[in-house]
Amino acid sequence: MSSSPLNILVTGGAGYIGSHTAHQLIDAGHRVTVVDTLYSGHLWAIPENAAFHQIDAGNREGMLEIMRANAFDAIIHFAGHIVVPESVEHPGKYYQNNVVASFNLIECAQKSGIGLFVFSSSAAVYGNPPSIPVNENAPLAPINPYGRTKLITEWTLQDIASGSSSNKPLRYVALRYFNVAGAQIEGHLGQSTPEATHLIKVACEAACQKRSGVEIFGTDYDTPDGTCIRDYIHVEDLAAAHLKALDYLGAGEPSTIINCGYGHGYSVRQVLDTVQKINGTNFPIQESKRRAGDPAQLIADNQKIHDLLQWKPRYDSLEVICETALNWERNGNQSVSLTR
User: How do residues 214-266 score in pLDDT, each as one tens digit?
Assistant: First the structure.
């Protein structure tokens, strides 16, 4: 926890990762204001003690009004579209929401004198990295519009922070997420994104008969079993990384970019086998051709997050990730246990 409570603006705080982080911020004693359009977020997921404004984070006039009325210390920016195949089909939607809206928000932050900024970036900025695990200094070569929009926003933050005045300096941490999954251990929060495409979410829906089955997109990758390998990180550990990033910035440290992952990966087949084992029953699995924009492997070199943020994950286990996600799908995903 920071040395003193902060007043924090959380964009996209009604969404999957944003809501988990907002709850942890409240539990740590911080003041939280959530802004969210509720496009893919949910009102019930916002902490009861958080203020809420239903507004687009890229709305300059509206965001300036909210910022000037609240004297925020920091912004954590989650709001954005995240579905890789959709970004390939509708790139304009992603550039508008992930790039233009983020630029507007960053400018509003600067005009309002908010000096601390944590950005929800992605390992998609690496594309198909030449070596695994991939560290923060690896070549940046995104292979889909989603990854490009995240990289452009990183560059925007870098340039605006470099040009910010000494009396109102902007410092930031960009957290490059690897594959986020799982649900709150207590079972009150989980992923409820409509028409989600993330593998563990889809597999758990299939296990609960909410889907007819699961597709494996590509079985001919250069991996041990021919399917893609990903570094899966539990959502609660990822949320905790955001609080650590605030501590880091609050201590006066310089802007930086940090990977968020466990440093090891699992294949699509390994994930499906794990979900079926935990569930105790099988579900139909269909093999399909490769999906546009999918790299063969993405595994984090996570030395920096350990060294710089003193981050210690609590749920580094594929079984725990899948079990919490499955429990959420079975018991919590009707969203009846939390209301505002």
Answer: 999 999 999 999 999 999 999 999 999 999 999 999 999 999 999 999 999 99
CATH code, domain carrying 46: 3.40.50.720
Q: State both tokens at 145.
A: 């519009």
Instruction: Just list the catalytic residues.
Output: 146
Instruction: Name 10's bridge partners.
Output: 34, 76
How far apart (Å, rounded) are the C-alpha atoms in residues 50 and 40? Answer: 19
Encoding tokens for residue 109?
Answer: 């932050």
Q: Taking the complete model, does pTM exceed 0.70, yes or no?
A: yes
What is the greatest pairwise CA distance in the chain? Answer: 61
Q: Is 76 exposed, middle or buried (0-12, 13-18, 19+ CB in 10 A)?
A: buried
The neighbour count for residue 116, using CB atoms within 10 Å, is 22
Domain count, the chain: 1
For residue 155, what are its two tokens?
Answer: 């560059």
66 three-class SS? helix
Residue 184 · residue 152 · CB < 8 Å: no
CA distance 107 to 102: 9
